Input
Amino acid sequence: MIGSAELRGLLPHRHPMLLVDRVDELVPGERLVARKAVTANEPWYEGIPQDAPPESYGYPEVLLTESWCQAAGVLATWESPNPDVLSGRVMLFGGVSDVCFERPVYPGEVVVHHVRVLRVLTDTMIFEGEALAGGERVMTVGRATLAFRPAATLTEAVRSAG
Output
């Protein structure tokens, strides 16, 4: 099992945007199973009125997708982690397609992400998979792309643009 401390060494994300709680299974270059516990204490639930209907508490789909992509990021960086985005190779989200949401996820549920490597190119990885809650599929990801670029090239581009 890979817990919070180890995840912080693999991903640059921090609270409240670190959306993976632990990794239960990891086969480098092949697949990963990770968990995200959804709680009502998360900031995105703050503004929901007291009298809101239960369906108002559905976990935002964009955050469910982000959580799954962070799990893919753990798999992508496992063999050469670099959580410091100012040096080394920076992991960039390239895109996601064929995402299907099957049902909402609510506080109190644990989302289990299944991520599989489809293809590895020189500096790009392509993934597929799904997320389950309560043993039911809640989301399918047809394809997600993560790319790696040298931090120096990115900071130089930012300086040139500014």
